[in-house]
Design goal:
By secondary structure, the protein is an alpha/beta fold. The protein folds into 2 domains: 244 residues, FAD/NAD(P)-binding domain (3-Layer(bba) Sandwich), CATH 3.50.50; 223 residues, FAD/NAD(P)-binding domain. The chain contains 15 helices and 20 strands. Helix 1 runs parallel beside helix 13 and helix 13 runs parallel beside helix 15. The longest helix is centred in the C-terminal third of the chain and has 22 residues. The chain is globular, with a radius of gyration of 24 Å. The structure holds ligand NA7.
């Protein structure tokens, strides 16, 4: 078997992989990216379900590393929140402009990676031919790429069609006039249901946990809207630049909930409802830390639900009880309004769970059969660790990441792991990742990593590993930061709670990008404190 030699292998050709590939070339590293899809785009390649769009604003959900490209695109985004095909086209355009495709192996899945201490290289095996040996292995697999269809009895008996939102066919799926069951009401389900309801004969939504949805107020992106958004972003950036900057939940608000009179509070919540989108539950600085403050925000949204949904019984089923913001904040376009349509109904499957799937549809515990032509699984992902475990990466102690992280992910700065030398995890567990505009997190990690790789090149270092104690204290810091807030209280995918048997650990870092930047810059300034450097001929430094 021939072995191909490269300096670096990047896994994934979404926004993380594309930017990493571009910057690795700049370092003069021979680099190849491995991508299981037939095209670039990552999550934006796979998530083609009806209504799929980004929940970060278009003018900031794009790369900033090339200001001219950003400027050029600013007037090209059609809407305030871009639809999936628009974002996929952008990723394709970037790949073409930077001539990245020639170094991407499409339709190729990484099946295993193992470290060889003698050569100080990773051997990366794929399902498409010879292995690749490389000095540096960089995961850009994303946090939400391992889609999950629940293990429900009887699915193979179902005579209709079924789809998962994260693996939706790229061909048109005609739902017109059909009886559709949708399971799941996270961001994907809240986006898809109103669009499906427009043409379906009947849509039945099976809800396990209700959501607090904040309206997106999506609209064509006019120059006025761009100015307003830029102004808001400018104010936030200026505030963060003043430092010392707060953590994620302290970035947006400045005052505390009960500093305001009830009237002022109601008016402020109304203003947030109309403008804040995903930042609603951070409008006040204490919403995510003080249960009483959170309850005030939660109740405001519950009242909105009561006022929008006409049928009181349906409205009651839609009222969440956990603290707002502790599950991923969903922003919607007409989700609650959809329940006023005659062709939509809601089932509370917490109270009356799914018994099984049958040939005709879904049978509930009370014996009722809901017949369907199509079942849509909007049931989410094995978030953050799932995509990494799928790579079957084996470390110096012979343990795979799945084994090493059996009690929860252990990383240093969310980008490196002890026993996994020369492996880097872009937007890995323990970094801000999903609690940010993820393109900002990607650029942050890639830029920081490029500086580190340059340092290694200059010093002739061929092995770098996160020290065990540095990893332990970072992991504790991630948990302690989460424990200052209400986030760990919810059964969310941040906590691994959506996957049976997954350890209950808060995985992303709540520091927020600005605070986190200060922390990783400080590590770099101390010549990468917490990492052990090594070179083949002589030891350079051990931290
Ligand atoms: P999410 O946010 O994980 O939502 C999945 C939904 O599916 C959620 O309502 C789940 O209920 C529900 N679910 C999951 N498993 C089951 C089973 N077994 N039975 C019934 N219902 C189930 O995934 P999305 O794709 O919507 O969004 C993921 C992220 O992508 C999103 O946050 C954005 O960042 C982009 P639960 O709440 O767990 O009770």
């Amino acid at each position: 078997m021939a072995v191909e030699e490269k300096d670096a292998v990047v896994i994934g050709a979404g926004f993380g992989g594309l930017y990493m590939l571009h910057r690795a070339r700049g370092l003069g590293l021979s680099t190849v990216a491995i991508e299981r899809a037939p095209d670039v785009g990552g999550t934006w390649y796979w998530n083609t379900y009806p209504g799929a769009r980004c929940d970060a604003e278009s003018i900031v959900y794009n790369y900033s590393f090339d200001p001219e490209l950003r400027q050029e695109y600013q007037s090209r985004w059609p809407e305030r929140y871009s639809r999936q095909p628009v974002i996929l086209d952008y990723a394709r355009d970037v790949a073409d402009r930077l001539d990245l495709r020639k170094d991407i192996r499409f339709d190729t899945t990484v099946t295993r990676a193992s470290w060889d201490e003698d050569s100080r290289t990773w051997t990366v095996e794929t399902d498409a031919g010879d292995p690749i040996r490389c000095r540096f292995l960089i995961s850009a697999v994303g946090c939400l790429s391992d889609s999950q269809v629940p293990d429900l009895p009887g699915l193979s008996d179902f005579r209709g069609e079924w789809y998962h939102t994260g693996r939706w066919p790229h061909e048109e799926v005609d739902l017109a006039g059909k009886r559709v069951i949708q399971i799941g009401t996270g961001s994907s389900g809240v986006q898809s249901a109103p669009v499906i309801a427009e043409t379906a004969g009947h849509l039945t939504v099976l809800q396990r946990t209700p959501q607090y949805c904040i309206p997106a107020f999506n609209a064509p992106l006019t120059p006025e809207l761009i100015d307003r958004s830029l102004d808001r972003i400018g104010q936030l950036t200026a505030r963060l630049a003043q430092g010392p900057v707060g953590r994620f939940w302290e970035m947006f608000g400045t005052k505390r909930t009960f500093e305001d009179t009830p009237e002022k509070r109601e008016a402020y919540f109304e203003q947030l409802w109309n403008t804040a989108g995903g930042a609603f539950s951070m409008g006040y600085v204490d919403t995510m830390t003080d249960p009483a403050a959170n309850e005030a925000a939660s109740e405001f949204v519950r009242n909105k639900i009561r006022s929008i949904v006409q049928d009181p019984e349906t409205a009651a089923k839609l009222l969440p009880s956990y603290p707002i913001g502790t599950k991923r904040q969903v922003i919607d376009s007409g989700y609650y309004e959809m329940y006023n349509r005659p062709n939509v109904s809601l089932e509370d499957i917490r109270a009356n769970p799914i018994d099984r799937i049958t040939a005709e549809g879904v049978r509930l515990a009370d014996g009722r059969l809901i017949e369907a032509d199509v079942i849509v699984f909007a049931t989410g992902f094995d978030a953050m660790t799932g995509p990494l475990f799928g790579l079957d990466i084996e470390g110096t102690d012979g343990r795979t990441l799945r084994e090493a992280w059996a009690e929860g992910p252990q990383t240093y700065l969310g980008i490196a792991a002890h026993c996994y030398p020369n492996l880097f995890l872009l937007t890995g567990p323990g970094s801000p990742s999903v609690l940010s505009n993820v393109i900002v997190s990607i650029e942050q990690h890639v830029d920081w990593l490029v500086a580190l790789l340059r340092r290694l090149q200059e010093a002739g270092v061929d092995r770098i590993e996160a020290a065990e104690d540095a990893q332990a204290s970072w992991t504790e810091h991630v948990t302690d930061t989460a424990d200052e807030t209400l986030w760990p209280q919810a059964d969310s995918w941040y906590m691994g709670a959506n996957i049976p048997g997954k350890p209950r650990v808060f995985m992303p870092y709540l520091g927020g990008n600005a605070f986190y930047q200060g922390e990783i810059d400080a590590v770099a300034a101390k010549d990468y404190e917490g990492f052990e450097f090594d070179r083949t001929d002589a030891e350079l430094r051990t931290a």
